[in-house]
Amino acid sequence: MRRARRAGVTLAAELAEQLEAYYRLLATWNSKINLTGLRLSEISPEALDRLLIEPVVAARFVPSRASRMLDVGSGGGSPAIPLALAVPRARLLMVESKTRKSVFLREAVRVLGMKDADVVTARFEELLSRPDLHEAHDLVTIRAVRVESRVLVTLQAFARPGGHVFLFRGSGHSDPSESVTPPLAWKATYPLIEPLRSRLVVLEKRAR
After folding, report:
1. What are phi and psi of 49, to 5 degrees?
2. Do 136 and 28 form a contact (C-beta atoms < 8 A)?
3. Nearest to residue 192, comparing CAs of 26, 104, 60?
4. CA end-to-end span of the chain, whole Å?
5. How far, in Å, CA of 65 to CA of 40, rounded?
6. 68-72 and 137-143: which strand pairing?
7. Which CATH number fits the domain that encloses residue 42?
8. Helix, strand, coil tally for the chain in percent (to 5)
């Protein structure tokens, strides 16, 4: 895939096929329900970079020991699904509050044969009532326009001590690294896709 090579990523044949299958499924469903604001009827470099390549680049920074991932506000499945496909050793739980989007996510999981992925239809705050999810994940991911400090306080509850929170940020989105409060601490900010000016903010949950 040329967009991957431009980003300095080499895709294995199997991963490339899975990403293509995911994109096609997303484009088909997006014509019926609004899964992403990107136009998918015609394949564009921006859509490929944002939906597929960006999460694959981010996979470089997933710790090798990571075995459980939680994605919040999964929507159309990116970055969660491409990231999980690029890190097949990890079990993925996607959290999406809208029922129709959850239906799509379950269909994507089925079509792609992601046996270690699951979907829950709920607001992520509601999951605080589930003790089995507390401090149970090596990685928590979110892509959102605004990530307020109260959101980070909630998200960190799902990350184990020593685990990480990945914030996918686009151009024009503020970097929340200066407003992070314990037990979270800023660890690094990495560039993802140069034309998009996107970046990955990595937060670490410190042991209390």
Report:
1. -65, -45
2. no
3. 60
4. 44
5. 35
6. parallel
7. 3.40.50.150
8. 40, 25, 40
Average pLDDT over residues 92-103: 97
Domain count, the chain: 1
Question: Any idea which of 18-32, 77-91, 137-151, 191-205 has the lowest mean pLDDT?
Answer: 137-151
Domain boundaries, position 145? 2-205
Closest by Cα among 76, 43, 57, 47 to 8: 57
Question: Can you tell me the mean pLDDT for 71-84?
Answer: 97
The one-letter amino acid at 106: R
Task: Identify which of 173, 161, 160, 167 has the alpha carbon closest to the alpha carbon of residue 200.
Answer: 167
Cβ atoms < 10 Å from Cβ of 8: 10
The structure's pTM equals: 0.94
106: helix, strand or coil:
helix
The closest alpha carbon to 147, from 178, 126, 119, 104, belongs to 178
